[in-house]
């Protein structure tokens, strides 16, 4: 059984399910309502927890009548960069343009950082995924932002959440109104599961993920026992189990789903409950402690050789001197691949050279058609990210017959690499593919002092329907933050 971390241990047995909003504005910043009016509105809707989060301003609620609500101190840090919530601390944090510095300051003060409305604004990238992947130690992101339903951009950032979770980060999803007007109140909320309604108890529940997001329906129970997670939501017509990159793994009808986690290799699973209209609820992710997504990426080193005229001049003995990549992982099973694959990497002043040796018990059964998609063939994919930008990288796909496709990502665009040389050979019990790539065609800098992102994928279609990967990227190969590291021997 996968070693799953349950964010809801025994919490659904508790009597208290506390309705909370953590993103609220008043006239102290750009809200249109007096602060007391805001508190009154949320009190009438049976909220029990409210955080006034005016832009870079703190303290307006101190003298207000709380109407029985627990008021959490907080601010929306706005100046200088993308917006985030500082949750649980009353001191104003300097809005440093270096958002990692802001997160660190919030954590050092004893609070939590939440990244606000990731898809606000016309470009849908207030918080781009690559930025979120580089930042550290924030508690979560807003997956629903009510104000954005009638503002530029998208209110929902479930795809951003899945992208960040799939890259190996462990963050929670939060739903907030981002109230500025009367019509913003009560669009979505966080149901916090705790018997301690004090600010300390609320913040502790947030930290451990003991809450779910709702736009109108209630989750009645979540349990994890034996080999299954069971989610019950009587208001839901259907419940969907969601895995990495937003894959829909299973469905449950009649208000319940039982999801078997015994053989799961994905880093997480979460659940979405769909009621009528736009009424939905979203659990936090259950993290798979055994997932390879949480393991360090592998490293290898390219051996420096004397300049050669062409890749054909490199002798077998020289290939064998360099460090070899031999440990591949089955994407289907998440364990070491059964069949042997070997990659050797060399370089000189002008080119990088890579040789793949793919061992097969019966090469006559290889799929290497010239008429179908190259991805349907037995093939090897080479991923290069010069400088480890985690943004722009190259993908070279070569099948067992030596047919090639080259793409530059992102976005996925067919391209050519000037001077690229491909050599393919079919031999008894294996096929070989060798590449020669001029440095100047893919990077402006000589690489000796710069590590690259690198990954290898071997696709097996003739004898086995599986793929093998060097650095684990899960079910989606295009995850440069999880590429392995290539260093250059001096």
From TrEMBL:
Domain Polymerase/histidinol phosphatase N-terminal residue range list? 20-81
CDD domains from the UniProt entry: CBM9_like_3
Which residue spans traverse the membrane?
none
Recorded hits in InterPro entries, A to Z, give: Carb-bd_dom_fam9, PHP_domain, Pol/His_phosphatase_N, Pol/histidinol_Pase-like
Q: Which GO terms describe its molecular function?
A: 5'-3' DNA exonuclease activity; 5'-3' RNA exonuclease activity; carbohydrate binding; hydrolase activity, hydrolyzing O-glycosyl compounds
Q: Which GO terms describe its biological process?
A: carbohydrate catabolic process
Q: Indicate what this protein is called per its UniProt record.
A: Polymerase/histidinol phosphatase N-terminal domain-containing protein
Q: Which organism is it from?
A: Candidatus Raymondbacteria bacterium RIFOXYD12_FULL_49_13
């Amino acid at each position: 059984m996968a070693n799953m971390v349950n964010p809801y241990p025994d919490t659904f047995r508790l009597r208290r399910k506390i309705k909370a909003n953590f993103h609220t504005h008043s006239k102290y910043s750009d809200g249109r309502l007096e602060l007391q009016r805001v508190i009154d509105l949320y009190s009438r809707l049976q909220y029990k927890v409210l955080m006034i989060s005016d832009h870079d301003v703190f303290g307006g609620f101190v003298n207000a009548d709380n109407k029985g609500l627990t008021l959490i101190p907080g601010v929306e840090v706005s100046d200088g960069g993308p917006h985030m919530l500082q949750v649980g601390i009353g001191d104003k944090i300097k809005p440093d343009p270096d958002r990692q510095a802001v997160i660190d300051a919030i954590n050092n003060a004893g609070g939590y950082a939440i990244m606000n409305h990731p898809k606000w604004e016309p470009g849908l990238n207030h918080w781009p995924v690559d930025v979120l992947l580089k930042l550290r130690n924030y508690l979560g992101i807003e997956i629903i932002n009510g104000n954005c339903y009638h503002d530029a951009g998208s209110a929902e950032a479930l795809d951003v959440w899945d992208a960040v979770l799939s890259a190996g980060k462990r963050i929670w999803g939060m739903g907030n109104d981002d109230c500025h007007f009367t019509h913003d109140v009560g669009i979505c909320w966080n149901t916090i599961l705790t018997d301690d309604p004090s600010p300390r108890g609320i913040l502790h529940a947030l930290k451990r993920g003991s809450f779910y997001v709702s736009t109108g329906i209630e989750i009645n129970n979540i349990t994890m026992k034996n080999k299954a997670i069971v989610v019950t939501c009587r208001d839901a017509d259907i419940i969907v189990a969601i895995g990495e990159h937003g894959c829909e793994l299973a469905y449950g009808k009649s208000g319940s789903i039982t999801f078997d986690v015994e053989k799961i290799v994905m880093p997480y699973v979460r659940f979405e409950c769909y009621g009528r209209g736009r009424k939905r609820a979203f659990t936090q992710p259950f993290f798979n402690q055994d997932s390879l997504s949480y393991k360090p990426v592998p490293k290898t080193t390219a051996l420096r050789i004397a300049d050669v005229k062409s890749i054909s001049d490199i002798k077998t003995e020289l290939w064998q001197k360099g460090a070899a990549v031999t440990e591949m992982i089955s994407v289907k099973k998440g364990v070491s691949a059964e069949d042997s694959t070997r990659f050797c990497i060399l370089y000189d002043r002008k080119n990088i050279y890579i040789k793949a040796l793919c061992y097969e018990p019966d090469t006559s059964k290889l799929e290497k058609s010239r008429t179908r998609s190259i991805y349907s063939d037995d093939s090897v994919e080479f991923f290069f990210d010069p400088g480890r930008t985690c943004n722009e990288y190259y993908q070279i796909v070569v099948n067992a017959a030596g047919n090639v496709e080259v793409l530059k990502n992102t976005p996925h665009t067919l391209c050519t690499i000037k001077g690229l040389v491909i050599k393919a050979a079919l031999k008894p019990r294996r096929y070989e593919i060798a590449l020669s790539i001029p440095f100047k065609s893919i990077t402006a800098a000589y690489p000796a002092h710069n590590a690259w992102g690198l990954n290898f994928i071997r696709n097996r279609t003739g004898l086995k329907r599986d793929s093998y990967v060097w650095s684990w990227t899960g079910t989606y190969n295009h995850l440069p933050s999880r590429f392995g590291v290539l260093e250059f021997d001096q």
